[in-house]
Amino acid sequence: MTDSPNYQDSIYTTAQPKLKKISDVTSGLSEMMQGKYLIKFDLEDDAQYQARYKRSEYNNSVNETIELAQGKIFRKPISYEDVTPQLEEWAQDVTGQSTTLNEWAKHETRKAVRDGLVYCLIDMPNNGDLSSLTDAQLSQLDLKPKLSTVLFSDIQNRIIDDYGNLVQVTIRESVTEQTGRFEQDTVTQYRVIWIEGGEVWQELYREGKDGKVQLWEEATIITPATNARKLVKIPLIPYYTNKTGAHNAEPPLLEQANTLISFYNINSQYTRALTKSGDPTLTMQNPEIDENGRPKPIKLGVNSMLGYSGDNAPEYLEFKGNSLPEYREKLKLLQEELDTYKSDLINKGNTVAVKQVEAENADNASKLTNFAWGLDDYLNGIKEIVSIYLGVENIGMIESNKDFDEYKITENMLEKLSKLELMGQISKRTLLELYKKGEILPDNFDIDSEIDNLSEQPPL
To answer: What's the predicted TM-score (pTM) here?
Structure first.
C-alpha cells in the first residue's frame, strides 16, 4: 500500500456516495441525469430514454427545505453578547472581501444543512518575525484572520485523537497553474495540516497528469509568529447539523432526497403512461381463450387492460386500464411524504418554547433547533481561534436566532393593541411583550426595567 496524501480513509469512502447523492439532488436536473437516477426500462432504447428524460419534470423540494431552514434561522442576525470590541470589529469582514460574519454563517448554513457537516479553515497571514516593527507599521499590514470553506467531501483523510480532536487532516483542493503566457491548467492539490508542540504545520502536494502525487511545498509553520499563545488544535472548525461521530456526519435530508428520487421516477412513468394512453394502439385478437371460449383481454403496462370486440379484424383500442390511477395515488402519497419533511423540520418538539429546551433534551427539539445549536458551537469555535490570533481574551458568546415563528405587527394591529391597553383590557407588560414578539421592540429590550421605570413616574 502506498502511503500517500491522496489516501481515502473509511470516513471518506463511507460518506462519499451519500454526499454525491445529496449534491446531485440539490444541483438540478442535469446532475440527476448524469447520476442515472432516472431508471431506464429494459426495452427502452437510448433515444427513447433521452426523450423521456427531457419530458420529466423535477421539483427540487430538498432545496426548498434547505432554503426554509436557512431563512428561519437567519430571520434575525446572529447576536454578540459580551465579546471583545476587537472581535466585533473583525466580524465586519471575515474574508478580506467585505463579508460579515453573519453573511458568512448564512452561506455556510446552507452547506451544513445539505451535507451534515462543513468546515471553516481559519488562515492567519504569517509575516515572519514582526517584533521589530512599530505599532504604526503593524497597523498597515493585513494581519487579520480570514475564513475559508472546506467541504466535508474534500477531507480526504484525517487523524483524530482520543478526545475527538483533529491532529492531522488532508484537504483535497483544485488549484490553477499558469502553463504558458495565456494558458492555465487545473490540478489537484493536497493540503496536509497537522499540529505539533502547539504549532500548526502545513505541507502541499500536487498530483501530476500521470496520477502520481509529489511534494510541492515543504513543511512550514502556519501559526503566526506574533502569536504569544499556542494553539491546542488545528484551526479547522466543524459545523454539524447531523453528527454521527467525531468529524463524521450524514446529510440530514438524505431520506427526503431518496423520496424525491422515487417521486421523480414515478412522475416520469406517469407522464410516459399518460402520453401512451392518448395514442390509440393497433391490436389484433389475443390467441389465448378464456373458460367461456372468448379471447382473453390484452394486457399492456402495469396492471392495465385493453378491451377487445372479439372478431379477427385489427382495430385501434383506447386505453382503459387502471395503471394511471395507481400512478396518481402513488404520486399523491409521495408528495404528502415530501411535504411532511418540511413540517417535521420545524414542528417536531415544541418550537414555541424552543429557548426553554435544554441541550440534553435535543431529541425532543426540532431539527431546525439542532441546526441552530450546531451553528452556535461553530461560531464560538471560530471566536476561540480568532481571539488567539487577535491576541485578545476569549470572552462572551455568539448566538444564532432560535425564534423561528414570524410574528409581525401591522399599523392597524399596533393601534388596536394601544387602545386595548388604554382601556385596561390588557396590561402594560402584555403590550410590551407583544411589541417585542412583533419586533416593534428590539430583542434586548428589558421589559422589567421599563415596567419599573413606568411605576416610578408620577401619574399624568
So the answer is: 0.78
